[in-house]
Amino acid sequence: MSTRLPTFGDMKAQELKGLLLDKRLLGGGVLFAALALYPGLTMNAYHTRLLAWIMCFAIAALGFNIVLGYTGLLSFGHAAFFGTGMYTVVIAMESAGITDLIVLLVLAMLAAGVVGAVIGALSVKTHEIYFALLTLALAQLLYVLAARDVGGLTRGTDGIGLSRPDFLGIPISEAPAHIYLMGFYYHVILVCLFATIAVLWLVLRSPFGLTLKMIRENETRAEMSGVPILRYRLYSMVLSAMIVGLAGALYAVVVGHVTPEYLDWTMSGEIVFMALLGGIGTFLGPIIGASGFIILQEVALGVTTYWHFTMGLVLFVVVLTLREKGIWGGAKALVDDLNERRDDS
Amino acid sequence: MSTRETDSTSTTQNASTEPILRTENVRKEFGNLVAVDGVSLEFYDDEIVGIIGPNGAGKTTYTNLISGALSLTDGTIVFDGDDISDLRKYKRVRRGLVRSFQIPQIYDELTVFENVQSSVLSRKQENNRLFSLTHRDTASIEETERLLEMFNLESHADEHTEHLPHGVRKILDVAMSFALRPKLMVLDEPTSGVGSREKNAVMETITDAAVERNIGLIFIEHDMELIRSYSDRIVALHEGRVLDDDDPAAVMNSEAVNQFILEGGV
């Protein structure tokens, strides 16, 4: 049997049935339906906005985790990709007059991918702290360019406000803001999130994903197995950048205003924070981390002006007690533990 | 080693053919220190060559030059008919020049099965495949299963490697190297850290697999007993130069070797 081709072809009907009944897939379907219906059922604009926000950052954290969780590189420059995604959308709309959402999203991903390739090419030779600092410095360079309005595209620290994109020729941007978000844009983000999950789930279980794990686990061995490790680190940076760029592009429309702050290192720090909070050793951890981060931020902001302190404290406790498993990995371990005890008794 | 002795006719036959690896006047300097000082040797794909020498003789440096971990100061390395002196490490591996390490280099957070399967997929240069699932890739799975069987690792297949006993880790390291289908394997102390009772078992496993697959072996070893039992030929290095290069009995009886290596303690 030839298995060089993707293996969906020879999947048996029974396997397909098993796949459909798979707990995780079923859970995902239920969650998707619930999220899709939420705005229409509750008509709660505040919650819808918060969920849209969470989903954007969930995509960013998932993309970031390719580099940290799978390839084992700690990047402190992912704001560059997020910000590039945002600026691409706003500049393409303002300067080039492109209004179609699909085109804008694709452009943003490509632009972020190019930035990822450049930053990656300059940094993948380094390791650990040097990699972190180099990515940080290169991203900061973009921040300075945007803040100083070099090239006259970004309007400096004032930033640029953006209008709402259309979709497949439908002038949906003419709808009122809350209808645009609750009836349309929220669902675009939702679909993008689930598409990202599906694609990454597949890619990270492919020979490519295994190759990234080989590099994370033991570079010497990976190279001595004939893997050009620098090239694969670069691939992982580009893939990661494209997904984070998509997140930035989606987010730009939600906030409606793009400033250099999104290119700043604190933004990179927040993405790292989310991944660590949810658990970098797990596939879904980054989503939990992004949700936790944003909900925590909302709650803390409402209660105290010292919200940074609250966030820091939570991350401190989570990392100290759960380490790379994060909240999600920790919860999984707890459930396994409880099941074991139940089986024992 | 009995298998080798019965094969002696083919050895002599092949000795006249092209060597799989040839180093010509290979030299490595670290600042003022000359670690390898003009070593010219030939290796064939049907022999097991032991490299001996006291600490600092340049054994590990020499193997690092062969694998590409270190760059040459001077000299040429010819592998399988091609000059590979300036070739990157991973490209040498892809041509069939594979080395293993003194300390097993394996992937701790992957299972034994994934460790071997990753090597199989890398050899087939399928690292680029994005949209297929490794746990459904029948071709690499079957090959991995055969390798696990060959090295008696089936019972450990689903274990994560970090908790494996040292001897098993060594064997896994070798199995991963075999998955690359090398033409020549360079082993840096294949039995270091392995209990003395296990040493022979490890060597048997390696040499049997090499004979079965027609793979040339070069191994560095401090244990003279192992060197004597498993080598077809011994190369003695001393201060970066070749002191002797002959069949085991001759090398072991050589006056120079006795003076510099055997008596000096290794």
From TrEMBL, chain A:
Its main location: membrane. One of its GO terms (molecular function) is branched-chain amino acid transmembrane transporter activity. The chain crosses the membrane at residues 25-43, 101-123, 129-146, 184-204, 234-259, 271-294, 306-322. It is a multi-pass membrane protein. It is found in: Cell membrane. Keywords: Cell membrane, Membrane, Transmembrane, Transmembrane helix. It comes from the Archaea. InterPro entries: ABC_transp_permease, LivM-like. One of its GO terms (cellular component) is plasma membrane. This is Branched-chain/neutral amino acids ABC transporter permease. It comes from Natronolimnohabitans innermongolicus JCM 12255. The lineage of its organism: Archaea, Methanobacteriati, Methanobacteriota, Stenosarchaea group, Halobacteria.
TrEMBL record, chain B:
Residues 8-17 have a biased composition (Polar residues). It comes from the Archaea. Residues 21-264 form the ABC transporter domain. Gene3D superfamilies: P-loop containing nucleotide triphosphate hydrolases (3.40.50.300). PROSITE patterns: ABC_TRANSPORTER_2 (PS50893). Residues 1-20 are annotated as: Disordered. Keywords: ATP-binding, Nucleotide-binding, Transport. One of its GO terms (cellular component) is plasma membrane. SMART domains: AAA (SM00382). Coiled coil: none annotated. GO terms for molecular function: ATP binding; ATP hydrolysis activity. This is Branched chain amino acid ABC transporter ATP-binding protein. It comes from Natronolimnohabitans innermongolicus JCM 12255.
